[in-house]
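FORM 7B: Structural annotation worksheet

SECTION A. Query
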Amino acid sequence: MATTLAPELPTLNNDEVLRYSRHLIMPEVGMEGQQKLKAARVLCIGTGGLGSPLALYLAAAGVGTLGLVDFDVVDFTNLQRQIIHFTSDVGKPKLESARQKLAEINPYVNVKTFPTKLTSENALQIFADFDIIVDGTDNFPTRFLVNDACVFTGKPNVYGSIFRFEGQASVFGAKDGPCYRCLYPEPPPPGLVPSCAEGGVLGILPGLVGLIQATETIKLILGSGNPLVGRLLLVDALGMKFRELKLRKNPDCVVCGTHPTVTKLIDYDEFCGIRGQETPVNQAGVPEISVEELKRKLDAKEDIYILDVREPHEYQICNLNGHLIPLNDLPKRVSELDPSKEMVVHCRSGARSARAVGFLRQAGFTKASNLAGGILAWADRVDPRSRCAIRLRVLQDGCRWLRLRRLPAKFLYCSGNRLRGVKDGSQLHQAPEFMVPNGCHTHGCHASALRTIRIAAELARRDPGLQIGGYSFRGLREDALRGR
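SECTION B. Predicted structure
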């Protein structure tokens, strides 16, 4: 399936002929194919994990116009997989960082940047100037938005997604081919599918899937090969296996079907049941207190009641010694609270606690305030070198073993330098040095459990006194992995 390009193809100068010489000697590309690449206009949604390798290789291949949509800034946590950004770029807008790298790779590429969030209000206008849309996003509202906008504008949607060791890729919205809604008519319930920030992702995987997207994009431009139209490619990096599922166009699809019922862009956050990003924003009428002010009050021994509305597994990772009542349990446990006390409510980053404060103030708790930025702000600005910060950054992102309530009843624990198994948690009070959820029998260690042990062993080496959830890392040694 070739994308419609301008009738008169641009010419290549001498420098470009030399630059693309390995393309020009390929019969599948040749001079005409390279001219098609130069005439092509490709829009990349996102310059993160998928967008990084995608943009780099499309620019190197000679795609003439490359559009980039992103409104984020480079963070240290991006560097593990978003290879277009360097350590020196931390704090910069991602578009600025990406533009600099692309200009270095190929000065003949026209890079157009859109420093904005893609929304129903601007998507059609942004898409208008491009031939192919490549989806490098990591959330369901934007994926459905990109799909619908591609169908409405008649542009192919080169799709990719990643999670932990698994990835997917396909081409949606092509003529007579299915769209994303043919595969996923409805979004999953909110919170059912964790994001990469919550569940993690192998740093190499975005490169693998992003290059598949880049390959499909170039095939569409050249009109060569067999693109992933009507096919969903499944990538299992842990087993290094590739599987393919056949996809059919759904005649009853609400967007691309015979009688579509969705004929314009909608509110995709509402469609996906998203309550909004959990960011430290102040809801209307909710009083806030900064982490610095809370620290001052605590140091002055003021009588402050701290209410933690996160989940138990989050409390185990790091806490401020507050009273734990998860947000969903708050209405039925509100009687446990004293409305006469000054109360500071916190969660991970401030969104859930803002809702809790709104509820409490309506219930007569006029002295309740929201901790702006949540415990993340506390770790970053008040006590960045504390064990709390270590637990948040290492254990929350790397050691998901604290989510015990979601796991089977079998565990492994380390005693001395040996791993032992217990059938349930009843024996854990017998002071095992460390435990990891595994769900497998005593004689087999799952890879994630071994990785957890290695991380914990390194933490134990750095800080022998570190405890989490009442359990100590003392005595944990990496040689526990040997002789299994």
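SECTION C. Observations
The chain is about 35% helix and 15% strand. The longest strand covers residues 157-163.

SECTION D. Sign-off
Analyst initials: ____
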